[in-house]
Design brief:
Radius of gyration: 17 Å
Order of helices and strands: HHHHHHH
Number of strands: 0
Largest sheet: none
Number of helices: 7
């Protein structure tokens, strides 16, 4: 429970908001971007390291929860201060949501690869900035960085296999 406390206090309402925004946003984005696209995706050639489809919602729900928790911790540390770190967080979250449309909905796999590279940089910058404010918050972003590096290689391989 200490993970949920900042300066010895837990703000349940703020915590819920920060965690649920990326989870619900990611769920809605995934649904909108993947609607009618899954049949096409199933027909694509995929690399041997491509995980089963069931892995993705579990991984993303976990990652969205961790990043929401990280944002909560930083926002609580910075109450009443200018929040540069939060702006970078919002940018990376928007890029995250955009990727699904590029890759699945619009089938722009090369563009999605470039966008994901920018996304990875934004996540790394967010993690660094979060770490400067709250070491735990910065550390909570590390699994997200790892997953996006994996997803970047998956995006690249899928794109190349289907050119």
């Amino acid at each position: 429970m200490e993970l949920l406390k900042v300066n010895g206090k837990m703000d349940t309402k703020s915590l819920a908001k920060h965690v649920l925004v990326p989870i619900i946003g990611g769920s809605i984005t995934g649904w909108l971007a993947n609607r009618h696209a899954q049949e096409k995706y199933k027909k694509l050639k995929k690399p041997s390291f491509s995980p089963p489809s069931a892995v993705f919602p579990i991984a993303w729900t976990t990652l969205y929860g961790l990043m929401g928790l990280a944002k909560y911790r930083v926002s609580k540390q910075q109450e009443g201060k200018r929040k540069k770190e939060i702006s970078i967080y919002e940018l990376q979250l928007g890029l995250n949501f955009l990727w699904s449309f590029l890759f699945f909905r619009w089938e722009l796999r090369g563009t999605a690869l470039v966008e994901m590279t920018v996304l990875l940089g934004a996540i790394a910058l967010t993690a660094y900035d979060f770490f400067q404010v709250d070491r735990t918050a910065g550390t909570l972003m590390i699994p997200y960085i790892g997953w996006v590096i994996f997803a970047l290689s998956l995006n690249y391989a899928t794109w190349k296999l289907n050119e």
